[in-house]
Each structure stands twice: as C-alpha cells, then as structure tokens.
Give the backbone structure.
Amino acid sequence: MKAGILAAGLGERLRQGGVDIPKPLVTVAGLPLITRAIRAAADAGATSIACIVNELSPEVAAYLESNPWPVAVEVVVKTTASSMESLFGLAPLLCDEPFLLLTVDAVFQPGTLARFLSRARGLVEADGVLALTRYVDDEKPLWARLAPSGTITALGENACPSPFVTAGFYYFRPAIFSLMEVARARQLNALRQFLALLPEKGLSLCGVSVPKTVDVDHPDDLENAEMWLKESDAFR
C-alpha cells in the first residue's frame, strides 16, 4: 500500500503565533510532525510514501532527503494553491492502487492509523473512507454526518448538528482522481470542497470513527498535543 502526506502548507497561523520554522518540522513530543506522519504510515503498513512539500520551505525537502526512513520516501517539491491541489500533485504517484492519505498536522496516538485502515479496507464499496473524530479543536472543522451503515450523508455546514469532524487522514481508491478536472473547472480551492464533490458525482464516501486527534494549527495546539500524548503514555 502506498501513502501520501500533504505537507505543502505554509503554517501561517503558527508563524503568526511566533513559530518561525516550517510546519512539517515543528516538533511535538520530540518529533517533527513530518516524522510522526511517516512513521505512522509505515507502522500502518505503507510500503512507500510520497510527500508534497512547499518549494518556499527548502529545509523540509532537505530534511526528508537527508534522513533515513523505514520505507521509501519520494519528495515532490511544489508550491500549490490549496490542499486539494496538493493532493492532485501526488496523483501520478498514487493513482494505480488504493492509498492512505494524511495531512501533516494531524497528531494521534500510536495504533490509531492501523486500526482505521483495518476497518477502511473492509468497506470495499467505498471510493473514499474518512477518519472521523468526536474531538473538535479546529476553528473551522469539517463536520460529517454518518449514517448507521457507515455512509457519509453530509459534509460541512449541511452536516450540522453532528458529533463528528474529519480527523486528517483518509483511505482512497484511485477513482477519486477522475474528478480532478471537474474540480478545477469549478474553481474549488480546498480538499474539503473536493470531498464534498465526490458523492455529488456518484462516488461513495464512508466514515470510520477514531479516537481523539489534535489538528496542529496554532501554538496552543502544540502544547495541547504534547500534554495529551504524555498523559496517554502515562496511562497506557
């Protein structure tokens, strides 16, 4: 199984809060976010990983290319207009088989990703499976309404009220890339908008509930994530 990691954002909210290093290299509990994502994907069974990073942050590509990794890591250096375009930038490397996708700023406990994948792979009729969490800390969460069957029936504002928001990792089949040009023609500018397009065009989306996941966008999120991981280790 291949995996992709979206790490091309500039981390502007972190920079505004005084964090002056690129977001993928920001550390949580001693590990850079990009390292956490790569290790989690490898531990979950990924045999190769494609990372897209911003050309305005060359130190991220240098870090990836100069360190040893448990599986092959291919680096795509490209400044993209949106998270959706970052996904599309990885399409040539991910388009031949089902794949795992992670955003670099999702922090979760060890084992969470493997358990998610175990359930996601069983949803053989789904073109996409979204990890959903009940923990809401994002200022602009993507709400998701989940039917008892596991099918996602609404995303975004149309899903409120709902106990679930997306957790920052996904399992997709290559069929999603058939809608790239449709998305661009509509001038969609975010991954969340592309996700909403999938069921509209007849592709099936399902959701799998996962434990707490912290989305690292602000300096306060770093402290929150570190405290939570330490507490989790203490009670394991």
Notes: The longest helix spans residues 219-234. The chain has one domain: 2-234.
